[in-house]
Amino acid sequence: MVEVSDPGKDVQKLIEDLGVNPNDSEKWHVLGEAYLSLKEGGKAEDAFKRCLKLDSNNAFAYGKLGWLYILWGKNKQAIKHLEKSVKLEPGNFEFWSSLGLAYFQKGKFDDAIMAFDHCLAINPDYYDGVVSLGLTYIEMNQWEKALETLHIADNLEPNNHRVLTSIAKALRKLGRLEELEQLYLRMQDLFPEDHTIAMYLGKFAFDNGRVQEGFRYYRKAVEIDPESLIGWKVLSEALAKYGMQEEARAAHKKYKEIEDRLKRDNTLLSG
């Protein structure tokens, strides 16, 4: 891998050097890396292409071009370049992970699994690869494998919201409700501003006959997010069900106010 120390200075020096010798493929590669560091994707793309025109075996230029195309949503081009990168450098786990991501975004989940498996065979503790593999299993409805893989990710780097939310989805699909409730209790401590967690815990409480606890969670949800349409709707319905009509009417009124405002906003946007 090329290290870029001072991208701004490096770019100027590299441009000067390439003015003298425009056939130095490695300097075109380093220039591309420098432009990437400066978040100048278009210029980086051009530099990597110039590198590959001179040296068609530069795996790193293929890999970085592939990554750029992933960022730009050009997954077909990303796959083309990343397949070349892993053919030239089959031991580079990051290239395999990027290839898996490109396959994933293209909806080619079996190919994504293959690429992530290659990545993790080289580096079993590569967090991004583990997470991506777990999310691919989610997309394939392979809930047991998803759960096993995402637990590995959570052990590597605990308390990632996206990972824990995906674990929750797998537990829900597998009907492992006691584990799911315990997970939401953990997430409540980690992410106290996520009102959806309070809503899930409220539903668990109601489903298990813990009515007052359920109301505490539902009220907490709309306290965290006073503009939650579904939060006010669920609270108003629960209040009405248990005969708390005055509070139910107030909650329903709040729900209707938010619903009407959202409808007006959508009308303005569409108009």
Summarize the structure.
By secondary structure, the chain is an all-alpha fold. Helix content is 80%, strand content 0%.
Describe what this molecule looks like in 3D:
The protein has a domain at 192-271: Tetratricopeptide repeat domain (Serine Threonine Protein Phosphatase 5, Tetratricopeptide repeat, Alpha Horseshoe), CATH 1.25.40.10. Helix content is 80%, strand content 0%. The protein has helices at 7-20, 25-37, 41-54, 59-71, 75-88, 93-106, 109-122, 127-139, 143-156, 161-174, 177-190, 195-207, 211-224, 229-241, 245-270. The longest helix is centred in the last third of the chain and has 26 residues, at 245-270. 39% of the residues are buried. The model has no long low-confidence stretch (mean pLDDT 94).
- Mind describing the biggest β-sheet? none
What overall form do the CA principal axes indicate? elongated
- CATH-derived architecture of the domain at 192-271: Alpha Horseshoe
As for the CATH topology of the domain at 192-271, it is Serine Threonine Protein Phosphatase 5, Tetratricopeptide repeat
Number of helices in the DSSP assignment: 15
- According to CATH, the homologous superfamily of the domain at 192-271 is Tetratricopeptide repeat domain
Strand content: under 5%
E-strand count: 0
CATH classification, class level of the domain at 192-271: Mainly Alpha
Rg measurement, Å: 25 Å
Low confidence ranges: none
| Secondary-structure element order, N to C | HHHHHHHHHHHHHHH
Distance between the termini: 51 Å
Helix content: over 70%
Mean pLDDT: 94
> Which class do the helix and strand fractions yield?
mainly alpha
